[in-house]
Amino acid sequence: MARPDKAAAVAELTDAFRSSNAAVLTEYRGLTVAQLKTLRRSLGEDAQYAVVKNTLTKIAANEAGITTLDDLFNGPTAVAFITGDPVTSAKGLRDFAKDNPNLVIKGGVLDGKVLSADDIKKLADLESREVLLSKLAGAFKSKQSQAASVFQALPSKFVRTAEALRVKQAEQGGAE
After folding, report:
1. Which residues partner with 47 through β-bridges?
2. At 1, is the pLDDT very low, low, confident or very high (cuts 50, 70, 90)?
3. Which of 42, 109, 44 is nearest to 70 (CA)?
4. CA within 13 Å, CB half, 70
5. pLDDT one-digit tens code per residue, 27-82
6. At what angle are helices 86-99 and 117-125 packed, to 10 degrees?
7. What is the rounded CA–CA span in Å between residue 43 and residue 126?
8. At what angle do helices 33-42 and 86-99 cross, to 10 degrees?
9. Beta bridge partners of 137
10. Is the confidence at residue 176, as pLDDT, over 60?
11. What share of the chain in percent tops pLDDT 90?
12. Which residues fall within 8 angstroms of residue 22, CB to CB, at 6 or more apart?
């Protein structure tokens, strides 16, 4: 029978898997406590970085419906549970791993899809959600201004043509 403390840990991890948008598994072997503290800060406010026991975390992930990560639960493992923008946290992990080669990104899951370590690095190369949304809004705005210019050009061209005809008739009428 499971001990109450282990059952509580599994329940807490299961809840963390269910409530997060993404989870990234890392190996932290060789990192100091100070480096882990720096890593937690670099992930941002929307991520929780937890050192976990592999067996309990595997059980929790399976209970949360994530069965594809089982192969990644070996060696000292820590999980970044991301509740906000996964790009920001992925950038934090990537940048920290560049400065501290002891941090190894194993893989993860994003909205139910399995991510390899390379996928997480590609995710980190994306721009943040806010930047992408502002670019999209800028594209919509530019298309609207182009459409407004087209709609405005027709009456403007008509007025210029009518004025040119009036001037031409006045010249012809004045020359006769």
Report:
1. 82
2. very low
3. 109
4. 8
5. 988 888 998 898 888 887 888 888 888 888 888 888 888 888 888 888 888 999 99
6. 110
7. 16
8. 150
9. none
10. no
11. 2
12. 82, 86, 89, 108, 109, 110, 111, 115
**Distances from the Cα of 106 to the Cα of 16, 23, 111, 146, angstroms:** 19, 11, 17, 47
CA distance 81 to 168: 76
CA triplet 44, 50, 54: central angle to 5 degrees?
145
Query: What's the one-letter identity of residue 146?
Result: Q
Q: Distance (Å, rounded) from C-alpha 164 to C-alpha 66?
A: 73
* Residue 175 one-letter amino acid: A
| Model confidence pLDDT, tens digit, residues 159-168 | 788 888 888 8
Triad 77, 67, 25: Cα angle to 5°: 25
Q: How far apart are CA 135 and CA 140, in angstroms?
A: 9
pLDDT tops 80 at residue 147: no
